[in-house]
Amino acid sequence: MTVKAILDEKGRDVVTIHPDEAIGDAVRLMASRRIGAVVAVRVDGGIAGILSERDVVRVLAEAGAEALSQPVSSAMTVNVRRARESHTVHELMEIMTEGRFRHLPVEDDGRLAGIVSIGDVVKRRIQDVEREAQEMRQYIATA
Ligand code: AMP
């Protein structure tokens, strides 16, 4: 199973925000869309960073509620690890585990082309394992 197969099923929409917007706006966006991260995108469409709920918790702990009026750029991670459509679920698990993050924006030709979360990865992994178990049961029953 590849990133392409995941995106074909879940869609390629990504919730984005401009890095100059306030962290409070990003928080409201994450809450209303029920997501854990927003990708900060420049006007030219390029990825500027990623802001996850973990970054918000960190700035709130450091600066208190005033942090909510600071720009997204002040708390986001700028060195964003990206996935390609050709990556497999197994490779995604390795990248996420190694980098200790749960979101991977997908980039195609320098453009944001989707996002995969750890929830998407776990869902596909469970489907794969269940299918393998079913195939084994069928094999044993007919052998
Ligand atoms: P997460 O586990 O995705 O909520 O994020 C944990 C930390 O990793 C936060 O500081 C995020 O900004 C950062 N992060 C999330 N996704 C990525 C990514 N794809 N590349 C680099 N850093 C990321």
Structure description:
The chain has 143 residues and is α+β, with helices and mostly antiparallel strands. The chain has one domain (3-142): CBS-domain, CATH 3.10.580. It is built from 5 helices and 5 strands; from the N terminus they run H-E-H-E-E-H-H-E-E-H. The strands form 2 sheets. It has a 3-stranded mixed beta sheet with strand order 1-2-3. A two-stranded antiparallel sheet has the order 4-5. Strand 1, helix 2 (23-33) and strand 2 (37-41) form a beta-alpha-beta unit. Adenosine monophosphate is lined by residues 36-37, 50, 52-55, 77, 80-81, 99, 101-104.
Summarize the structure in short:
With about 140 residues, the chain is α+β, with helices and mostly antiparallel strands. The protein contains five helices and five strands; from the N terminus they run H-E-H-E-E-H-H-E-E-H. Helix 4 (about 90-100) packs across helix 5 (about 120-140).
Q: Widest sheet: strand order? A: 1-2-3
Mean pLDDT: 95
Instruction: Note the run of SSEs as H and E.
Output: HEHEEHHEEH
CATH homologous superfamily descriptor: CBS-domain
What overall geometry do the principal axes of the alpha carbons give? elongated
The hetero compounds bound to this protein are:
adenosine monophosphate
CATH fold naming: CBS-domain
Topology at a glance:
Elements: H1 3-10, E1 16-17, H2 23-33, E2 37-41, E3 47-52, H3 53-63, H4 89-99, E4 103-108, E5 111-117, H5 118-142
Parallel strand pairs: 1-2
Antiparallel strand pairs: 2-3, 4-5
Helix pairs in contact: 4-5
